[in-house]
Fold:
Amino acid sequence: MNQDVKEILYDEAALARRVAELGKAISQDYAGKDLLVVGVLKGAVVFFSDLIRAIETPLEMDFIAVSSYGRQTSTTGKVRFIKDLDVSVEGRHVLIVEDILDTGNTLKYLYDVMCSRKPASVKICALLDKPSRRTAEIDADYVGYVIPNAFVVGYGLDYAERYRNLPYIGVLKEEVYQ
Ligand code: IMP
Structure:
């Protein structure tokens, strides 16, 4: 285990099982539909790449990037677009894939932007959900795990751009960011 990690919440086997379940549910719900899966860079990349391979229905993928915390551990409420989609969402079923739903500021913003572009539908898939921290009115349609209020890293999630490559999700030791 990485020395900065206090505790492992979900190991590789647990993540693989849960991602397979999410993929199955998404495959059933989107059968016969024109599905565009939108990954939110960079945190969702690892989850996204496993998830799309667990989805059996045909799909197209694209990515968006929004501003992140830098070295803090909470968003400020202001979300900034760094990279927009390359394709149009008009008339299509959009599934936004995000690593974690925390205050909800990021996903609320992205959800509203996508909805304004005349899609057939917009849904959200978040690997992790911290409902105790929510300030924006937004929920995910597919959630991997509901977690308590702890700062987690690994499987794509970072602190100051580190730890994304850990194959598990673990709680970061407080002394690392305090
Ligand atoms: P929100 O806008 O507060 O919901 O924050 C969403 C973004 O904050 C996520 O996409 C993550 O990049 C980041 N984030 C929130 N909580 C954590 C965490 O526990 N570890 C790492 N990143 C986090």
